[in-house]
Design a protein that fits this description.
The chain has about 230 residues and is an all-alpha fold. It is built from 9 helices and no strands.
Length: about 230
């Protein structure tokens, strides 16, 4: 019964996630607004809605947390959200004369909406599976969710990135259970809409070094916490 309940919750979650994604990217439903930031958020809202509906429908004791194991929500907010906004925004201002504040925070919120589903819900539902099996399932479902099935080199590279991201972001979530943290990692690629060049790669490397170092140092000074004991 428990296994059927778990499978049922995943099916409902994914069906809702796919439905919202399809409506957002394959129909004209978003033509009601000219606001590009709203459109970005609506393209990524499906996993969050799917997760919340499944949790409610199947009465799943899932504790989603912005701060995770950190002492307060301000800490991951500063490290994983404010820092990249300041760093990337400053470089953008120096190079282009623009500080894309709204866009950067929109990308982060988009990442948060996705991560509520992929890590906060799906990874937790699959945690009893062998790690490799869980990674394969999440990465494949994540790839299909994007509804881009062209057999191109860039798409295959993207699939590889999703496998790497599923493993890496999954490790981060298992370490601190902070949705703010995994949203930051998720957004690293999405920050740069015009492709990855030398400057963008340097920014990604700098942020990864800072973030991984922070996680390691903080982890040494804190006890391992059960995610079900974490408050929002």
């Amino acid at each position: 019964m428990k296994e059927r309940k778990g499978l049922g919750s995943i099916i409902v979650f994914y069906a809702i996630a796919i439905l919202f994604r399809f409506l957002a990217v394959k129909t004209n439903l978003l033509d009601f607004t000219d606001n590009e930031f709203i459109k970005i958020l609506l393209r990524g809202i499906g996993p969050a809605i799917g997760a919340l509906v499944s949790v409610k429908l199947f009465n799943i004791p899932l504790n989603l947390s912005l701060k995770g194991k950190y002492s307060n929500v301000l800490l991951p907010l500063l490290v994983f959200w404010i820092l990249p906004v300041i760093l990337i925004g400053t470089v953008s201002y120096i190079q282009q004369g623009q500080f894309p504040l709204v866009l950067l925070f929109t990308v982060l919120v988009y990442g948060l909406l996705e991560e509520i589903g992929w890590r906060g819900f799906l990874q937790e539902q699959l945690k009893d599976l062998p790690q490799l099996q869980s990674i394969i399932i999440i990465a494949v479902l994540w790839f299909i969710w994007h509804l881009n099935f062209e057999f191109t080199t860039s798409n295959m590279i993207f699939l590889g990135i999703l496998f790497l991201g599923t493993w890496g972001i999954g490790k981060v979530y298992s370490n601190n259970y902070s949705l703010l943290a995994v949203a930051g990692f998720h957004s690293l690629n999405n920050f740069f809409r015009n492709g990855l060049h030398q400057t963008e790669l340097i920014l990604i490397a700098v942020l990864l070094i800072i973030w991984i170092g922070f996680i390691i140092i903080y982890g040494r000074n804190s006890k391992k916490i059960n995610p079900n004991q974490i408050d929002l």
